[in-house]
Automatic annotation (TrEMBL):
Phylogenetic placement of the source organism: Bacteria, Pseudomonadati, Pseudomonadota, Gammaproteobacteria, Alteromonadales
Source taxon at top rank: Bacteria
Protein name: Cytoplasmic protein
InterPro entries: DUF1249
Amino acid sequence: MTGKIEQDVRRKYVPHLPSIQRVCALNYVRLIKLLPDCDTEELEYQFRVNKVLNYSIKIVECSRYTSTVVMSQDSVIGPDFMHPVVRVRLYHDAQLAEVIEAQHIGALQPSYEYPNIKMHQKNEKEMVNLFLSEWLLFCSKHKDQLQATSA
């Protein structure tokens, strides 16, 4: 029995591509609905949920087929690690939005050996894209409070 458990732990995670594409397509739709203009660099959208919780989405790069945005949660309470930051690339031709950096960890691999020295989950990339999906859903519920600012 122990041998089977060790094999399961050591087995390489193989991402289910259709599931990941579905999440990335959903994230693209949610981001486009949330951002009236996603083609203007340095444009920043902010919304306040309550007195201590703010969210911001900043467009940091725009090109013909892609845009890159940085989403962050700002709160006056809680430690820094509880303030998530993700960098998301929007592929306009494929209509997909993919997390390319989360919590200052860039170049997320599709899968990781487990255990590993950096304590990444086997499906770390899939998990951060699911997190983005839930985060965007939350943000869309508070869209009424959205304010755009330009640098």
